[in-house]
Design a protein that fits this description.
The protein is 46% helix and 16% strand. The protein is an alpha/beta fold.
Length: 751
């Protein structure tokens, strides 16, 4: 039996290939295919169901059921045994279909006389395109060899569907990758952009699906796998003495590459009649399908490893590599599963927007995107599968929405939105040299966040008073080895030169948690955000911070210098870090180097505990900056990278505002300069509320300064403060709706 099935499978695939080559319409091709499969499998029925839309399967062709049911019988996903296969992405094989759980009788098909049922998903790269079904009158389960042969055939059908083999007026099926698609992801960076798709990793196109020579294809596969293994070995050897965790990950990667089971499955696919490329893609589709069913994050990552290996192997087999010869469009919008900071910076500011299939709001890519002020959408599922190079695309980073191949109405509406934003930017630009002065005469200091030299021109264009936060870790993240002190000194000097006397607050190295350096040991932690990071690493590894402080002092070259330590949780950490600064400063003077004219050393308040530090600490720091992003996550015990919880808690919660008022009150009494830094500072509504409770200095991304200033100049902070106090005193849990009502009424009055 196994030998016969294999032989029949090879013959069937060749007949399918010949059918593909024939000049005929989509429906005729579908009809012939169902006949060929039924004949080869020796069953009375073969049917092909394809998705009409995201939720509906349609009977598109059949051999053995009533022909009048074709294009008339439809099932919702999950409905009946066919819908069950589509939903679960798993085979259903039963000898008594009417008695099987989930069975739905469809009288229009005439299937009541058939007992046996076998359904396999038609899927490509994890995406289900339809269901292939065989049925027979005899009550029996289909053998594992027969099911396997059906899966091989289903894979070929998936590729035929992808290539548009069944498109036609008579089928009602439209070509893939041509219809408008809406993706709802997560907003990673605000802004709107219109452009053309540029795939970071171009899709590998497999054109030869069927093989006439299994021995030759197996040899090709083995040779390609050997090249793959050599490449992985070289990567592992290069970092053998580097990061232990990264080495372990790559060793796991190598384990997959050397997996005999993986190779055997692909060899078995070739024996069924597939080409080497098609065999790789079949196993890749299976891995992707399993990926969607696995909840365990570790297992998902391992399946991702297998997916990456498959892509590497396909590029070796096809010879396509990563360079397809296509030219990057004039208005590129980058599409990728994920991307590292160095790769993203290689593209630079020519990107109009970025759309990622994975990622998080705190990922390296998100950090760089914010630094470059490029709209970013993350968690746009299946976008890399659907998008093609050059496709028109609209990205709404504010709402986390992506329109791929949009229709004219959407394009028109989106263009109006972009035009409105451009008009607003003109209005904000006109305020560049104006003070952020409220209607009751209060002046708010607005500074900008930065992390790259490319950010510094925004000091002038945005109207920022200075740099309230310079993220020094970006220069560490984008490299594959530790930067030298001389390199850092040169960079910091250029930053101070570009600031032209305006204050720049340099935050010392803030790594750990989501910001991992590939060339530094990284410990495995259950809760990395609460673990070994930021100042904790710096104090345990003082040589790095000493090098950085030396670079900062030398870069200042007699100018004013401001240094800020991240994630100070208790006052002793600040004292220890400050002592290191003083020690370095003494050493630099002894060496005869030009030291800062004035040096200010502050801390970031990112943990609730620091608000209760002794008065001595508040007198010891030159300034404090509330790091709103981390503080909010710790205050509410809600991981800001976890989409299930991060949106549940609001900055305008009265409990959070009361806490911030307590911090402001302590700093005011001790005359400790205080500012607020973080995403909330750049949101106009939140910004005016922060100012109303007592903050007089905010630091935000450059693009937010204009909108925040515009609103501040129209608000009476004292009136808003009275409203907030009244709402808090009344026992309200949140002030957002009251503030929105007040602002709307103010706009009605002022126009």
């Amino acid at each position: 039996m196994p030998e016969r099935t294999q032989t029949d499978s090879q013959q069937l695939l060749r007949r399918l290939r010949d059918t593909m080559a024939e000049e005929q319409k989509g429906q005729a091709r579908l009809n012939k295919i169902t006949h060929l499969i039924a004949d080869s499998m020796r069953t009375e029925v073969c049917s092909i169901y394809l998705f009409r839309d995201a939720e509906t399967l349609e009977l598109c062709a059949t051999e053995g059921l009533k022909t009048e049911a074709v294009h008339q019988t439809r099932l919702r996903i999950g409905e009946g045994l066919v819908g069950k296969v589509a939903k679960s992405k798993k085979v259903v094989n039963t000898e008594d279909a009417p008695s099987a759980q989930g069975f739905r009788f469809m009288p229009e098909t005439g299937e009541e006389i058939f007992s046996s049922f076998a359904g396999v998903p038609i899927q490509r790269l994890g995406e289900t395109l339809g269901v292939l079904v065989t049925q027979s009158k005899n009550s029996r389960k289909f053998s594992s060899e027969e099911i396997y042969a059906l899966e091989v055939v289903a894979m070929v059908l998936a590729e035929m569907t992808e290539l548009g083999a069944f498109v036609g007026d008579e089928t009602g099926l439209t070509a893939l990758h041509q219809q408008p698609v809406l993706f709802r992801g997560t907003n990673g960076q605000e802004g709107a952009a219109k452009g053309s798709v540029w795939l970071h990793e171009p899709r590998v196109v497999v054109t030869n699906l069927v093989s006439d020579d299994a021995i030759e294809e197996t040899t090709r596969l083995k040779n390609a796998v050997n090249l793959l293994r050599q490449g992985v070995d070289e990567i592992v050897d290069k970092i053998a003495d580097g990061d232990k965790e990264q080495t372990e990950i790559l060793k796991t990667f190598r384990m997959f590459a050397n997996s005999r089971g993986w190779l055997r499955r692909m060899e078995a696919d070739i024996d069924q009649g597939l080409s080497a490329e098609a065999a790789v893609e079949k196993e890749q589709s299976s891995a992707r399908a399993r990926m969607s069913q696995v909840a365990d994050s570790y297992m998902r990552e391992r399946l991702h490893d297998l997916d990456d290996l498959s892509n590497r192997l396909l590029r070796i087999l096809t010879g396509q590599g990563t360079n397809t010869g296509a030219e990057i469009p004039k208005d590129p919008i980058l599409i990728a599963r994920n991307i590292g900071p160095a790769e993203l910076l290689d593209y630079g500011r020519r990107l109009k927007a970025i759309v990622l299939e994975e990622g998080s709001v705190g990922s390296h890519a998100a950090i760089v995107a914010r630094a470059l002020s490029i709209p970013l959408v993350i968690n746009a599922k299946n976008v890399t599968t659907e998008a093609l190079n050059g496709d028109p695309i609209l990205v709404d980073g504010t709402q986390g929405i992506v329109h791929l191949r949009p229709d004219d109405n959407v394009v028109h509406a989106f263009s109006e939105k972009i035009a409105m934003e451009a008009k607003n930017q003109e209005r904000y630009h006109a305020l560049r040299d104006e003070a952020a002065k409220t209607t009751d005469g209060q002046i708010i200091d607005l500074s900008m966040n930065a992390g790259l030299m490319a950010d510094l021109p925004s000091l002038t264009s945005s109207g920022a008073s200075g740099v309230g936060l310079f993220r020094t870790e970006l220069q560490f993240l984008i490299r594959n080895k530790m930067p030298k002190r001389s390199e850092l000194k040169k960079l910091y000097s250029r930053v101070l030169d570009a600031a032209k006397g305006k204050q720049v607050v340099f935050r010392t190295l803030d790594i750990g948690s989501d910001k991992v350096l590939s060339y530094m040991p990284n410990v495995s932690e259950a809760n990395p955000a609460l673990g070994w990071r930021a100042i904790r690493i710096a104090l345990d590894r003082p040589s790095i911070m000493r090098m950085q402080i030396e670079a900062l002092i030398r870069a200042s070259d007699g100018r004013n210098l401001s240094i800020m330590f991240p994630l100070i949780s208790q006052d002793s950490e600040f004292y220890e870090a400050r002592a290191l600064v003083d020690k370095v400063l003494t050493g630099e003077k002894r060496l005869g180097h030009n030291t800062p004219n004035e040096i200010k050393v502050g801390a970031m308040l990112e943990t609730p505990s620091l608000a209760y530090a002794p008065k001595k600490f508040l007198n010891a720091v030159d300034f404090l900056s509330v790091g709103g992003n981390d503080l909010k996550q710790f205050f509410f015990a809600a991981d800001r990278e976890n989409e299930l919880v991060r949106r549940k808690y609001d900055t305008l919660s009265t409990s959070y505002l009361e806490y911030l008022r307590f911090v402001i009150d302590r700093c005011t009494k001790n005359k400790t300069p205080l500012s607020f830094c973080g995403e909330d500072a750049g949101r106009p509504l939140e910004a005016v509320c922060l100012c109303a409770i007592g903050f007089s200095s905010l630091s935000m991304r450059p693009a937010s300064i204009g909108p925040v200033k515009h609103l501040l100049r129209r608000v009476n902070l004292q009136d808003l403060s009275n409203i907030l106090n009244s709402e808090i005193d009344s026992g309200s849990s949140n002030v957002r709706s009251v503030v929105e009502k007040y602002l709307n009424s103010m706009w009605d009055i002022n126009g």
